[in-house]
Amino acid sequence: MRKNQIIFLLVSPIFFIFIFIPFFNLAYSQSTWQLQYSTQTNGSTREFKFFNDQTGYLVGHGDLIIYTTTGGNNWIKRTDLTGTFEKIIYINDSTGILVGRNELYKTTNTGESWSLIYGPGVEDRYFMDMQVINETEYLLFGKKYIRKTTDGGLTWEIIYTGPFIPNYEYILFTSVNFINSNEGFVTFTNMSEGTNLFLKSGLYKTTDGGATYNLYYEINTHSSYSSDLKIFQNGIGYFNSRLSIVKTTDYGNSWKNIFFNSQALSKLHFITSEIGWVKLYYDRMVYKTTNSGNFWQFIGNINNQNIENLEFINSLTGWIVTKDYSINQIYIYKTNDGGILNVSNTNSLIPEKFYLKQNYPNPFNPETNIEFGIKNYSEVNLTVYDISGIEILKKNFGNMQPGNYNYKFNGLNLPSGIYFYKLNSGNYSFTNKMTLLK
User: Does domain 344-436 have CATH number 2.60.40.2550?
Assistant: First the structure.
């Protein structure tokens, strides 16, 4: 049934409206998500990572390892490894490390087989992330300690012990990103004594290749678990706590908050310093930015399912993992057009002329509807400007069939003010004004 849904989504909008409304919350979309794989699992997903356009892994808790070597056309679920997996790191084309909370596995044959190399009998394991220095030297981050190997993971030594902090049970190093061979940042979370609450988080920095670390940035926020960290060669970088995204433009010398939400943020994924995605933890929402976090666009949801994870290899090609918790079933979907799901066909009638309606509600906070009609098959673009004429959003809907459409604009991360939205279709162009009032 799901295969038929995707086919009709592409070729027959009218048929889709009458047949598929019970299965999708959007009647018609210019963007497409194609179901590639589904399986049952009791665990939650932790990392979804493609190393090129063909090879990708989805790993998580409950012994979850699913991988593809065909760009997602075929997925294979491994059942021979056990663990609570957090990360997967490839050192070269054939060698990789699978990081579990309590064990490390290594492959030297592109994942055909994996060998247990570290974990059993080690105190305070809770491993979270790894930094590759070279072919044989790696740094391992987790509970209390930072460890190092110089022989490809056969032996490890503790090179750094997190500071003792009164009233906290332990420090947990959660993710790492080096910007060169000497400088790197590590996110951390302090765990509350006896409750396992995340009460403080931030960054440590090393300037000597990981030998020593200094506290660099701290967030004192309830439930401020730090997870994803990425710093690019141009000095722009991001990491997220439980409730916010923090940004640097000077290689981590200073940081500022660019995104805050009352719901927890569980996944931050940037592929360039401009383009990234964030997933909310308790809801079915994913937001995308194409201008370094200055504006975040709501993608939508798929089949009204909980979004577990996501991965993009460029601005258009990506995957999203959803889960139906009632049956412990996960689904992997792929898009080749960016996957923005917030433009919908409102009815099957062909308008007599091109039009752009006044948005509603207006004023709005934070979401409003922009309705427009396309008389002839043409390429359609929507651009939003602030009061000073600065472009904050440019959305290319591609070539659209004649019809009546609704676009949901979300100003969650914009300040109150007057904005202008301009729609172009062929030789037609209209502009209207809207007001965001928070």
Answer: yes
